[in-house]
Task: inverse folding
């Protein structure tokens, strides 16, 4: 099985990658289209030069890697929909089990704004995620549910994709992983300190007016996907 886990930023996606990486039957790929996205757009992100040096820049080569044989029975790929630019290959995704991880935009924006000053709807990826779901289909899960009850939520996810649940998914050792992208040094600090999923989410954050406008723009995309999420 090849799982393509699609998620916007600041959305429990690294913890989910570590959860599947804690299983003995999975290999991991961490955002393999990130470097091609940076190379194609010229976007200035933290550690841009290091990312381009360390990772494959050609989207066609990355697509081939996504389907390449691995030493484990299964492969888990962490992907971001906004990395998939027009012209990037998508045929490989039709050979995967596609899962779409969503989170309420107010929570995403509050988390992302702590790391990045100027956010746009395209940067947080909600339109791209809905469009990608409409293109490849798949299962929808919400990070709120996972944090509220990891075992129940992951058991339901595994059942939905016909994969036996493994209790190893609930915990992992603290620290970095050999599968981490080089950007982990900037973005993964909290999950490197973790040994499992954080507890339930708190109250919805209060956003500054300009960020609330962004949240209002993103909310309809989130709501369309949330209406399709896996029932527990």
Result:
């Amino acid at each position: 099985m090849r799982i393509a886990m699609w998620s916007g930023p600041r959305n429990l996606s690294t913890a989910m990658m570590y959860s599947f990486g804690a299983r003995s039957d999975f290999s991991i790929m961490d955002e393999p289209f990130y470097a091609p996205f940076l190379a194609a757009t010229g976007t200035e992100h933290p550690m841009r030069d290091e990312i381009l040096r360390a990772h494959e820049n050609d989207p066609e080569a990355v697509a081939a890697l996504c389907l390449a044989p691995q030493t484990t029975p299964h492969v888990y790929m962490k992907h971001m929909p906004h990395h998939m630019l027009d012209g990037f290959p998508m045929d490989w995704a039709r050979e995967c089990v596609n899962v779409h991880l969503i989170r309420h935009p107010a929570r995403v924006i509050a988390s992302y704004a702590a790391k990045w000053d100027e956010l746009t709807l395209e940067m947080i990826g909600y339109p791209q995620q809905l469009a990608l779901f409409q293109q490849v289909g798949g299962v929808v899960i919400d990070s709120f549910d996972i944090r509220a009850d990891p075992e129940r939520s992951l058991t339901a996810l595994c059942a939905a994709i016909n994969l036996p649940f493994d209790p190893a998914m609930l915990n992992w050792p603290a620290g970095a992983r050999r599968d981490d992208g080089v950007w982990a040094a900037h973005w993964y600090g909290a999950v490197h300190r973790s040994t499992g999923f954080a507890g339930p989410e708190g109250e919805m954050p209060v956003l500054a007016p300009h960020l609330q406008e962004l949240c209002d723009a993103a909310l309809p995309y989130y709501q369309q996907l949330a209406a399709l999420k896996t029932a527990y």
The mean pLDDT is 96. Residues 209-226 form the longest helix (18 residues). The first strand starts at residue 2 and ends at 7.
